[in-house]
Amino acid sequence: MRYEARLSGSGGQGLILIGIILAEAVGIYDGKNVVQTQSYGPEARGGASKSEVIISDETIYYPKATHLDLLLCMNQKSCDEYYLDLKKDGILIVDSSLVHQVPTNKAYQIPFTRLAKEELGKAFVANIIAIGAIAEISKIVKESSLTEAVLKRVPPWSADLNKKALKIGMEEGKKAEAFIPSKG
Amino acid sequence: MPEYTRLIYNYLRHDKKFPHVWCPGCGNGILLGSLIRAIHQTGLTKDEIVLVSGIGCCGRLPVYVDFNTLHTTHGRALTFATGIKLANPSLKVITIMGDGDSMAIGGNHFIHAARRNIDVTAIILNNSIYGMTGGQYSPTTPYGMRASTAVYNSIEQAFQISELAVTAGASFVGRQTVYNARLLDGLIEKAILKKGFSVVEVVTHCHTQYGRQNKMGSAVDMLKWQRDNAVPVEKAAKMSPEALEGKIITGILVDKELPVYEEEYNKVRAKAKGLS
Amino acid sequence: MAKMTYRLLQGNEAIVEGAIAAGCRFFAGYPITPATEIAEGMSVRLPMVDGTFVQMEDEIGSMGAIIGASLAGVKSMTATSGPGFSLMQENIGFACIAEVPCVVADIMRGGPSTGLPTNPAQSDIMQTRWGTHGDHPIIVLSPHSVEECFTVTVKAFNLSERYRVPVILATDEVVAHMREKVALPPRESLEIIDRLRPTVPPDWYIPFEDNSMGVPPMSAFGDGYRYHVTGLVHDVRGFPTSRPDEVDTLIRRLHRKIDKGLGYIQEGEYFLMDDAEVAIIAYSSVARSAKQAAIMAREDGKKVGVFRPITLWPFMRKDVEEILKNVRAVIIPEMNMGQYSREVKRVDQGYARIITLNRVDGQVITPDDILRKLKEVY
């Protein structure tokens, strides 16, 4: 089965990094085939940014995502732009601190950025909270694999901070499920 | 054959069919003689020398001498030299460039080679004109002089090659005329032995183009002009700017110890190996 | 054989590892999207293995520096994208005529001019072949996966050393920035080719003398074989010449050495081609869309295959002719206005219908794009 994930938002939110982390966790630690791509504008901060991860047990030829099984939107613009690429049963996860107009109530709304600021005092770990929530909601990656992949890609001094972020994400993922009105 | 001629003969390539491409009376031959005498004095072997040139009359110089020789593209001699030196730092790399070659099309490479302070010697033949292509004005053609692309006289200000080299960060900078060939020998020898980027600006004449278009007479007349206008740097220090107008300040302008790129890069290697 | 370990690597990172494995020990470059990661990787890796990285003032200087390093006997490369590749052309020509081995990675982005810095394109295909002036031979290879970024880079160095010719490693932004799970082959399993060096005494060395392969042995500066290298047309000793017979001999030898090596140089992949009635010819990232499209078409009962040239130049004429004779139509999707397809059309003698599919909007060609084209013929 081919699984397509798109992590979108704006430059500087660390979307490419969590794409790499997800790909590494699924590909290297879980042993599946994986391809990660990205597209971005000229801006290092701001502007559109997206990272895509294709997961499969078979050989992956086409490397880009077109029919999404999972879409993460970390700002309003990306939600507006990519929502229609989501499959019928696809999972939509939004950062509710930045996405205020959600196109469907069948969406997981978690305030990643606010949580990062309020719980950990560092807005920049919003992406790690998000990837924790993604793992919990989608079940596409093992928790241990994800933790290992995160720790490999972040600077050693921030290991504890990122572990905490991941944990918050997973807990929020569990909680968020309850708010889905009609599952499936 | 006198010993003086024998020395030069020993360094020439005898499987290369002379005559050379230069006009009778050209200063390039004087520089070639100076360069050979200087290299001989340093004691470096022929195998250790790499002579790299760009394009123009002086670009043809390396082909005549029995070293490792490389005739590159216009303005790019220093980039090739950079690659050679960094790939094999035990080689002594000397570039030969003209004023158009080093200051116009290759001006960027020149200032950056100086800034990096690569251990390369740059010899620049400054004849204030593009000779080979027929006497067009160059970045060192003085204001008001005539050239075949400035028949109404040049309206551009000339670059001062040596002063630019000093500003760009070269370790050693010297200027001399081909008239003072024996002084030139010593200057080139010092430049070659200097660790770091060294520049020798060789003031020479192109009587065929520059001299003819500006009615400066024969090669001999232009050599005399060099003799009469050269001012040693020590003497120049005591002269007023007005008195120095139009003069050629000769001698060593800069000779200082600066970090050399290749040595600095060894530190990079040590750090990288500490990481790996 | 050593155990294969899997890593998640980016295309550009795999190019760096391939170059190091091939024996590259000198890199000169200038930052440019989407090739910058190659320079960054080289600046980290080369000093670890006693190699040298230098960031030059521009791409002209980068190309000059790698030629210089190669003349000093060190395997060298640079990496760039369209605008920088344009600046390198003059000195690429120097490497062609002076027969200096070197590798240039051209990670293609949208053009012309500054174009689309962060978007993919395949619009340098003709420039890789004809970018520098004059009649010259050149080899261009195009990887389509991260693993191939490694193996094809090794091949690029091998061909460059074997034929004393610059080799262009041309791929697009998608492949260069894509990350895949790969197991890099262990060093001892790789074939590494080094240039032939003279075995005769220096007095006997004739640096540009012809031989059966058309590739004279190459001495490094400092090895005791003092000789002359020039961008001028030269005689067998390396000295400038304009004698018609000597000029003709050199230019024809430069071509002959590549022509004689076609069987060795050319490499392509046949994917589901055995019984194919329609062939898709595609390279670099578009080849991946083509394979996906072929699989989807076959689920629909349509016999579609893919031919993927890894060697873009010299053009794989024999392979393409054979394909044209055996299918009823060929679809050529490209992220340009039809650069490779023009070559295919040139050799088509009415054998098969040729359909081009061109995208120049900075977006990748999707399998669906190709399937829609397929409906026109199948």
Mean pLDDT of chain C: 97
CATH top-level class of the largest domain in chain C: Alpha Beta
Percent helix of chain C: 25-40%
CATH superfamily of chain B: Thiamin diphosphate (ThDP)-binding fold, Pyr/PP domains
Summarize this structure as a short list of keywords or feature phrases.
heterotrimer, B: 276 residues, alpha/beta, Rossmann fold, eight-stranded mixed sheet, two-stranded antiparallel sheet, 41% helix, C: 378 residues, 3 domains, five-stranded mixed sheet, 16 strands, 38% helix, 21% strand
Task: Detail the topology: elements first, then pairings.
The complex is a heterotrimer of chains A (184), B (276) and C (378).
Chain A: E1 3-10, H1 15-29, E2 33-40, E3 48-56, E4 68-73, H2 76-82, E5 86-95, E6 108-110, H3 112-120, H4 126-138, H5 143-153, H6 159-177
Parallel strand pairs in A: 1-4, 4-5, 5-6
Antiparallel strand pairs in A: 1-3, 2-3
Chain B: H1 3-11, H2 28-42, E1 49-53, E2 68-71, H3 77-87, E3 92-98, H4 99-105, H5 107-116, E4 120-126, E5 129-130, E6 136-137, H6 161-168, E7 172-177, H7 181-193, E8 198-203, H8 207-213, H9 219-229, E9 230-232, H10 233-236, H11 241-244, E10 248-255, H12 261-275
Parallel strand pairs in B: 1-2, 1-3, 3-4, 4-8, 7-8, 9-10
Antiparallel strand pairs in B: 5-6, 7-10
Helix pairs in contact in B: 2-7, 4-5, 5-6
Chain C: E1 6-10, H1 11-22, E2 26-29, H2 36-45, E3 52-55, H3 59-71, E4 76-80, H4 82-98, E5 102-110, E6 116-120, H5 125-130, E7 139-141, H6 146-163, E8 166-172, H7 173-177, E9 179-183, E10 228-230, H8 244-260, H9 262-265, E11 268-271, E12 278-281, H10 284-299, E13 304-309, E14 311-313, H11 317-326, E15 329-334, H12 340-347, E16 353-358, H13 367-374
Parallel strand pairs in C: 2-3, 2-4, 4-5, 5-8, 7-8, 12-13, 12-15, 15-16
Antiparallel strand pairs in C: 1-9, 5-6, 7-14, 11-13
Helix pairs in contact in C: 1-2, 1-6, 3-4, 10-13
